[in-house]
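User: Second chain of the day. Same drill as before.
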Amino acid sequence: MIKRTLADIAAMAGGRLSDPAMGDIEICGVSRDSRALTRGNLYVPLVGDNFDGHEFAASALAQGAAAALWQQGRAHAPHGAPLVYVDDTLAALQRLAAAYRRQLGAKVVGITGSNGKTTTKDLTAAVLAAAFRVHKTEGNYNNHIGLPLTLLQMDERTEIAVLEMGMSGRGEIELLSRLAAPDVAIITNIGEAHLLQLGSRIEIARAKTEIVAGLREGGLLIYNGDEPLIEQALSERPEAADEGRRRFGTFRFGAGPSNELKPLNIRMDGTSTRFEIDGLPGTGFAIPVLGVHNVINALAAAAAGKRFGLGPAAIARGLAAAVMTGMRIEVAVAPSGVTVLNDAYNASPTSMRAALRLLAELDAKGRKYAVLADMLELGPQEAELHREVGRSIDPAAVEAVLAYGPLGRHIAEGARERFPHERVFHYEDKEALARELASRTAAGDAVLVKGSRGMRMETVAAHLLQLGGR
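Assistant: Same format as last time:
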C-alpha cells in the first residue's frame, strides 16, 4: 500500500497542508470508511447524495487515522488536525492514485467488457502470477472510487497490477483508463448489460472501447475477435486514426477462425474445463470453472501472459492454479447428490445463454433444472429479452424451468413456447421456489441458479444445498 509523507500526499493529490509543520507525518494506506481504517491511514471523506464523510473525520482521526483530506469550503474542520485541503475529495483521491501508479514501476493490465470481467481478471492474475508479483482488483472495486483505492493498495514491489474496470455510462471507462494508464487492455465481449443506460449494443461497444484512451504508447489491446462491434467502435476512436493506431498493437482471441488464439477440444471434467489452444501448441490447459464461455475468457488471460513473455507451460500452470471470485458458477454437490451450479452474481441475456449452454453440456446422470431470475437494467426491451432467454432453453436438455421475479415471468412465457406447460413454473416467493425444487430433485440431478445480483438468488442455491433432495 502507499507509504508517503503527508507533504508527498498533498503534492500528489493537488492539495495543501493545513500546517506545513505536519508535512513529515507518515501515511500508510488510505481508507474512505472510518469504521474500517487502520492506524496510520489517510482518511478520505467522500461526499454523496445522502452522506458526507466529513462528518466522520474527527472520529477517524481519534481511531488512529494519521491525517485526512478536507474539501475546501466545508465547515467544522477538526481544529489542529493534520489535514490536506483539496478542491474535491474524490478528484483528489483519483489524482493521488494516478500519481502513485506513475511513480511505481509496475505494469498494468486493464480489463473491461459486458460479461466475464471478473473471471478474466482472476484468470489473468493467476497466469501472470506464475512469473510476476501480481496485485489485482478485489471484490467489486472496479469503479471511479474502487479502482483508485485498488491502485493505492499496491505494494511498491508489485510488478503487474490486474485491474477490472466497470461502468454504467459513457465516459466512465475512459476516466478509469486514464487513471490506470494500462500497458495492456482487454475487452472480453459486448453484451446487453447497461442497455437501460446506453440504449444499444453499439453504444455499449463505444463505452467499452474507451479503455484505449489511457493505453500507454507501445501497449496492446486484446479483444474478442468474434464481436464485430468492437472493431466498429474502435474505428471511431481518435486513437484509431492512422497516426494514433501506431501507439498500440491489437491481438484477437475467440472461437472464430480469424483469431490469433482459438480453443480446441473443449471438455468438462467435474469442476474443471480442459482444452487446447490453437496458437499455443504442445500444451494442454485446464481452468477450475466450467463452460465454453470461460474457456474464451481464459484465452484473453493467455494472450496477456504471452504479451509478458510467458510460454505455454507457465500459462497452463497459472490457469490451473486460478482462484475464482465467488458466485461465478460455483459448483457444489449437496449431501443428496444434487449438483448445484450457483451463478448468482450477475446476469444478462449473453451470460444467461452461456450458463444454459453449460447446463446442457454438463455430464449429469440425472435431470437438469434451470432456475432463472430477473436480468436488471435492460431498458425498454427487457420483456422481450427475457422471453428470448426462455425460448433459447432446449426442452431436450432441461427437465424444467423455474423462473422467479416480475421479469422472470417473461422467461417462463418464452420457455412455454417450446416446453410443455407443466414443465415451466413461475414464482414470486423464493422460499416456495426453493422448497419445490428440493422436493423435485434427486441424486444425480443438476440445477443451474442464475439471476442479477439484486435478485439474491444465492439464497435459493443455499436452501437447496442445505435441504438436499427427496
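The chain has a mean pLDDT of 92.

User: Great, on to the next one.
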